[in-house]
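Data availability (excerpt). The following record was deposited with the supplementary files.
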Amino acid sequence: MAPRILPGRRRAVWAGAVAAALLALLTWSLGAPPDEPVPGGRVSIATGVPTGVYAKYGALLKEDLGRDLPALDVRLRLSTGSLDNLRQLAAGDADFAIATADAAAAYVDTARPGSARLRACARLYDDYMQLVVRRDAPTQSVRDLKGLKVGVGAEGSGVQLITKRLLKAAKLDFSKDITPVQVGIDVMPRLLEKGDIDAFFWSGGLPTNALQSLSHRMPVRLVQLGDMIGPLHALGPETRFYRAAVMPVDAYPTMGATEVVKTIAVANLLITTEGVDANLTEGVTRTVIGSRDSIGQEVHAAQLVDLRTAVFTDPLPLHDGARRYYVSVKP
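Predicted structure:
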């Protein structure tokens, strides 16, 4: 005769079975073997300025990580942009960060503290360089900025990095030929609206909410940058991350563009450091790829996150955990 299980003990056995089943289900969803711990604890992600695409993407990614990795306490850190994010990573102030490939290369090439420890999780979406002026401004090229007051992005931003290179390619001196105003996308639209600057550069996904909002308040347009891709590449190998691209007519409907705008694009990467747990990095990478459609509903640029291209993270090697994820889903 089988031993009798008392009611209280039966409930305990049932509760234990349910808990074990839930743990197994969660472990299976991460694609990790059952003997590996479920990622937990506190992690931080360095994003960007409040009105930029990085910050919005980070906030949505945090929501999806909360769904996929419920034991993880995700904190978001604002920053001035890519170079600042890399500094936070290298200093141990952040565990993950979003940064452009050119900024990552600049950080590594100059052997900044902690740069050797940087690793990539995924190639995300492309940033588009956007030069914004009043609709009636005579500016038709970067070369026409000579003598003007120009928003160039905040110190430590990827915007300022590429802006300096574009000006150099146009044979303009950053300090002498323009009056650089070193502020971010949270400030530049307002300065243009007030007439305190004549133009500003921005590097971000399409559309960027701050520009969308500006175009509702005043007539503005985007200046083509297509004539700069050749001179930019001629500067040297550090510009290999820039490619020719076009912004569609409907990128910002209220700007009233009648044709595509030629520009320059650069890839964004999700970056971590070699010391971050491989099981955690695998889980985060899985969520990044799996959340493309849900995040893309609000951050349209995220619709371009693609499993087939996510592994191309030059100039950084893949983190072991990210590599493990890609191997696990390889056909």
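Summary of structural features: The CA atoms of residues 166 and 300 lie 26 Å apart.
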